[in-house]
Amino acid sequence: MQSLQRSDMKIHQILPSLSYGDAVSNDAIEIRNALKRMGYDSDIFAKYIDPKVSKFARHLNQYKKTANNIVIYHFSLAGFDVTDFVKQLPDLKILIYHNITPENFFKDINDELYYICKNGRIELKTLSKVVKLGLGDSEYNKNELDSFDFRNTGILPILIDFSKYNVCPNKKIVKKFDDDYVNLLFVGRISPNKKQEDVIKSFYYYNKLNPKSRLFFVGSYNGMEKYFFQLEKLVNKLNLADVVFTGKTTFDEMIAYYHLADIFLCMSEHEGFCVPLLESMFFNIPIIAYNSTAIPYTLGNSGILVKEKRSDEIAEIINLVINDKSLRTRIVKIQNERLKDFEISKTEEKLKNYLEINLKNKNC
Q: How confident is the model at residue 358 (pLDDT cuts 50, 70, 90)?
């Protein structure tokens, strides 16, 4: 890839926080790697930095503003003072929008997150006049930017380096669960917008069809304890013995659950992109997902989309996919074709093209 480097210009990224294992943070790290491959001097700046990823970032107070630079601002929650900081920069500004979960999902669950999400869309409106380019990481997110009158928009999928997924799965987890059970999987933080209760209800009906089945929820419930307790109560009410909540996992533990999975089941009602869909494609796991927000855009024509949450019918679909090997093979084949659209080299090329266009018109 030909270098676009200019000796007097740097391209940096800003986030309110850089976290370990978070999809937005992982995207920023991969973009940093891509920019460096293009020949740019590039760093990540954040107000809060998880020690596990501190080698990738510098504190926001170290940022040196200049009109010669480009700054990429990742937006998924209200940034408050960080957003104000970005708005006053003389640097050319690019926004990457990962979407904001509607605040009503968090009412009576997490008051702080309710407030942050509510203010997020207020902040988003104020950014439309100050950024040169607004990029959604899905068509769904681009459409929302358009609805907020962003003048110049595009789509830049999340950058994922799947070579990093070729690691040995956690042996203890594989040994514990590698049996003749059918394993259903959902990966993602425990959160009301992801509607884990609807996954449990579908599993309840499938477990009646096949008692030798279990359900894995892989993801942290930190800050969502009220919702987590509701899920536990539902599991107990339905008398389900084989529902496993893993809590936060290490990377090799997450990989182990993907290796064990027979079906990825997603009933989420709000996703800005949904990286686990691509991860499931990579691990050849058939996907059954509710047709909502960014999910159909990420799946394309792959997986199985359900338009209504009829838990008993979803259980029948699961049973069909498990027992019909030819159907399963077709689903996985189409998913593999879809995954090619998200190869990191293709997404990196899109990033390069957006930069070239905006550098050419930098002074317009």
A: confident
In the structure, what pLDDT confidence band is assigned to residue 360 with cuts at 50, 70 and 90? low
Write phi, then psi, for 259 (nearest 5 degrees).
-65, -30
Is CATH 3.40.50.2000 the classification given to domain 11-159?
A: yes
Six-digit token string for 157 = 């999928």
Q: Where are the alpha helices (DSSP H) in 210-262?
A: 225-237, 251-260
Read off the pLDDT of residues 44-98 as tens digits, 9 standing for 90 and up.
Answer: 999 999 999 999 999 999 999 999 999 999 999 999 999 999 999 999 999 999 9
299-309 pLDDT per residue, tens = 999 999 999 99
Domain ranges of the chain: 11-159, 164-341
Both tokens assigned to 148: 């907020």
Other C-beta atoms lying within 10 Å of the C-beta of residue 319: 17
Indicate whether this model's pTM tops 0.90. yes
Q: Specify the fold of 164-341.
A: Rossmann fold (3.40.50)
Residues 304 and 301: their CA atoms lie apart, in Å, by: 9
Dist. CA 170–CA 282, nearest whole Å: 18
Distance CA 31, CA 2 (A): 16
Q: How far apart are CA 15 and CA 47, in angstroms?
A: 7
CA distances from 244 to 16, 183, 186, 303 (A): 32, 10, 11, 24
